[in-house]
Design brief:
Number of helices: 4
Distance between the termini: 34 Å
CATH architecture: 3-Layer(aba) Sandwich
CATH superfamily: Transcriptional regulator MraZ domain
Helix content: 25-40%
Structural class: alpha+beta
Number of domains: 1
Length: 149
């Protein structure tokens, strides 16, 4: 996917099982017929993995550079962002191999949940996702009411 390509839209929630080698199948609606590249990054504070196609991944450095942070803080943030990111590619079965350290940080075991998040998707430990989903539902209901959805 080139930088000029539109960002795919990731929507829906999909329970999955991760095998002992840390491979997990991406929902078929989210991958093409050929191998697809992604970047996997642990969310800095919320305990899940963010997964982005290259076009979305490239936008994050631009966002850091456009922030009001000092030049030194921007350098540190860019360095940390890239040091945390791991490039992965789907295999012929549409699976990605998740880095062991990332799985440990997100407490991923065998049962995981893929959650669409617009221009990226998230991989959550099933138990953790179920715990935050109730809070997310309450916030969604409030915001939906405010905007007349």
């Amino acid at each position: 996917m080139s930088p000029e390509s539109p960002t795919p839209l990731y929507s829906g929630t999909y329970p999955r099982s991760m095998d002992a080698k840390k491979r997990v199948s991406i929902p078929s609606a989210w991958v093409g017929a050929e191998e697809s590249p992604f970047h996997v990054i642990p969310h800095p504070t919320e305990g899940y993995l963010m997964v982005m196609p290259p076009v979305e991944f490239d936008r994050w450095e631009q966002r850091i550079q456009a922030s009001n942070a000092s030049p030194a803080d921007k350098r540190r943030a860019v360095r940390k962002f890239y040091s945390e990111a791991h490039a992965v590619t789907t295999d012929k079965q549409g699976r990605i191999l998740l880095p062991e350290g990332h799985c440990n940080r997100a407490t991923l075991k065998s049962d995981v949940v893929f959650v669409g998040a617009g221009s990226r998707f998230e991989i959550w430990a099933k138990e953790r996702y179920e715990a935050v989903e109730a809070e997310d539902n309450a916030v969604y209901m409030q915001v939906a009411g405010e905007i007349g959805l």
